């Protein structure tokens, strides 16, 4: 599992873009994790799945609500990562009003979750291998804090907890 002081794993996440801009075409775009994190302060939070109860009702909405405060405290971007494809993450982000606040990043094959050692096996519940629920602060591609929740818990990875961590750094 990733630990404080480790670099983010190499690889790609995928983001659905609704509006084409310079460098980002309409549709799913690959995001090189290390390149996107270089020289930036990023909050990355992971969760088991799009449209699931805690994720949709509390986890993502908390980060959408606190995004401006996180930016004011020095965070350049907030990324939500889940083992879902970019289309699902894009639709979920639209539903939750995440645009401009949280980048909704798909880890469709679970490659990032596996490389980071942050997987959760929900096979018994019909969901397969997913991302654990976590939040990390990443500065210039290096993990500066990492909080991984026990299965079924939602406390240390909340936006409120991360905002306190960012302000204390």
From TrEMBL:
<dbReference type="InterPro" id="IPR013740">
    <property type="entry name" value="Redoxin"/>
</dbReference>
<comment type="similarity">
    <text>Belongs to the peroxiredoxin family. Prx5 subfamily.</text>
</comment>
<keyword id="KW-0575">Peroxidase</keyword>
<feature type="domain" description="Thioredoxin">
    <location>
        <begin position="2"/>
        <end position="168"/>
    </location>
</feature>
<keyword id="KW-0049">Antioxidant</keyword>
<dbReference type="Pfam" id="PF08534">
    <property type="entry name" value="Redoxin"/>
</dbReference>
<keyword id="KW-0560">Oxidoreductase</keyword>
<keyword id="KW-0676">Redox-active center</keyword>
<dbReference type="InterPro" id="IPR037944">
    <property type="entry name" value="PRX5-like"/>
</dbReference>
<dbReference type="InterPro" id="IPR013766">
    <property type="entry name" value="Thioredoxin_domain"/>
</dbReference>
<protein>
    <recommendedName>
        <fullName>Glutathione-dependent peroxiredoxin</fullName>
        <ecNumber>1.11.1.27</ecNumber>
    </recommendedName>
</protein>
<comment type="function">
    <text>Thiol-specific peroxidase that catalyzes the reduction of hydrogen peroxide and organic hydroperoxides to water and alcohols, respectively. Plays a role in cell protection against oxidative stress by detoxifying peroxides.</text>
</comment>
<dbReference type="InterPro" id="IPR036249">
    <property type="entry name" value="Thioredoxin-like_sf"/>
</dbReference>
